Every structure is written in C-alpha cells, then in structure tokens.
Amino acid sequence: MKKNTRVMDIIIFGVCLFAVLLLREYRAEVGPNIQWGLGIPLALAALFFGVRAANPDIVRGERDD
User: Fold this and answer.
1) What does 7-23 look like in DSSP terms, one character per residue?
2) pLDDT per residue as tens digits for the range 9-48
3) Cα-Cα-Cα-Cα dihedral of 57, 61, 64, 65, to 10°?
4) Residue 44 CA neighbour count, 13 Å, CB half
5) Which residue has the higher pLDDT, 59 or 14?
6) DSSP letter at 61?
7) What angle do CA 40, 43, 46 make, to 5 degrees?
8) Do the beta carbons of residue 58 and residue 48 sit within 8 Å?
9) Is 6 helix (H, G, I), strand (E, B) or coil?
10) Sign of the alpha-carbon dihedral angle for 51, 52, 57, 60
11) Residue 49's CB: how many other CB atoms inside 10 A?
C-alpha cells in the first residue's frame, strides 16, 4: 500500500468519526431519521477506512512502504 493512500485512509477515518460525533452532539436539532440515516453509513465508512489504514498488509496494490 502506498503511503499517500494510507494517509488518505486515516484522514477519511477521522472526518467520518468527526461527523458522527457532530451528529451525536447536535442530536436535539437533528431529527432521529437524519441522525440514524447519516450516522450508521458514516460509522461503517469510518470502520472500513480505519481497518484498511491499520492493516496495510491485507490491501492489494503496489508495495511502496
């Protein structure tokens, strides 16, 4: 896995988690349908990119590190 791909995975992971935390913080203003409709997909995307960034051995591609 290339280093810049790993860095982008970590950045996407952080942005997704930040968005989920914002949804949790402003849950009174955001309706429950929006909270669940955006929160679950963002959490799954964060999980995917977090696992992908933490385990570069299982991602196929060029070896650059």
Assistant:
1) HHHHHHHHHHHHHHHHH
2) 999 999 999 999 998 898 888 888 888 899 899 999 999 9
3) -10
4) 5
5) 14
6) S
7) 150
8) no
9) helix
10) positive
11) 20
pTM for the full predicted model: 0.76
H-assigned helices in 1-65: 3-25, 32-54
Residue 15, both tokens: 């942005």
Tokens (6 digits) for 46: 């964060």
Q: Which long-range contacts (CB under 8 A, 24 or more apart) does 11-19 make?
A: 12/45, 12/46, 12/49, 13/46, 13/49, 13/50, 13/53, 16/42, 16/43, 16/45, 16/46, 16/49, 17/46
Tokens of 58: 């299982």
